[in-house]
Structure formats: C-alpha cells, structure tokens
C-alpha cells in the first residue's frame, strides 16, 4: 500500500472520528430532549454505535479496500479528539439554537394555518349553523301559525269529519273482512 492511500485513509478516518463525535453530540442532545424510557435509550445506544461502526467500515472499504491497520484507529481517535476539543461546545450550542428555531417555525406555521384556514372555516361553519337554525325556527313558526289557522277554519267541520271517518272506517273494515273471507274460501276450494 503506497503512502498516498495511507494518508487518504488516515484523513478519511480522522473525518469519520469528527463526524462520529458530531453524531454522538446530536444523539445526546436529542436523547436529552426526548425523555425516553431506559430500555429504549439502551436500544438506541446500541443502534447508534452499530450504525456508526458500519458507516466507518463502509468508508474504509471505499478508501482502502477495508484493510484495518493501527493508523486507522489513530486517525479516528485524533478526529474525535480534535472535534471534542475545538468544536463540540459550538456545535451543541448551534444544535440547541436550530432546535429552538425549528420549534418556533413549527409554532408559527401552525398559528398561521390556524388564523388563515381553521378559524375562518369554523366561523363560516358557525354562521351557516346560525342561519340554518334561524330559518328552521322561522319555518316552525310559520307552520305552527298555518296549523292554528287551519284548525280554526276547519273546526266547524271537525264533528262532521269525525262522523264521516267512522262511517268510512266501518265500511272499509267490512270490505276487508269480506275480501279476506272470499280469499280464504277460494283457497280452501282449491
């Protein structure tokens, strides 16, 4: 293996070490914000380290065909140490600010959608319900008035109508009885 490939490998592993440090800080910040149960934290810890090692191995395969030597570990440790020495605090501060910005942006978008969409639709719905309720009460009042007028106008004919109804009911009852008897007798004959 020539010196150029070895230097590329050490540089790539130093970058991997720094990126793993950034990934660790990112994971740690989000883990602190999420307040997950301990068993889930344990699962995510294992997932993070296995994923990190898998990514490092894939990069190692791309850079030097997966050959593992001491300078690789030195490069990773050096990259992580350099990141934690120079950039960790600034990155964590940046990450907290980005989280606050994203929360603010989310709340702002939700408020804008609430003001521009939800509230007008709810207002329109309430207006429609009020108008329909008013129209329904007006219709009930008109129908009630018409019913009272109709009862008042037809009240002299009420007794005559009741008498006529009883006569018609009596005649139809006899008709239906005759019809049933005729139908049953015809069935018996067959």
UniProtKB/TrEMBL annotation:
Keyword Lipid metabolism: no
InterPro entries in the cross-refs: YabQ (IPR019074)
Leader sequence segment: none
Keywords, alphabetical: Membrane, Transmembrane, Transmembrane helix
TM regions (residue ranges): 6-24, 36-61, 67-86, 123-147
A family per Pfam: Spore_YabQ
NCBIfam families reported for this sequence: spore_yabQ
Protein name, as recorded: Spore cortex biosynthesis protein YabQ
Organism: Brevibacillus formosus
Classification of source organism: Bacteria, Bacillati, Bacillota, Bacilli, Bacillales
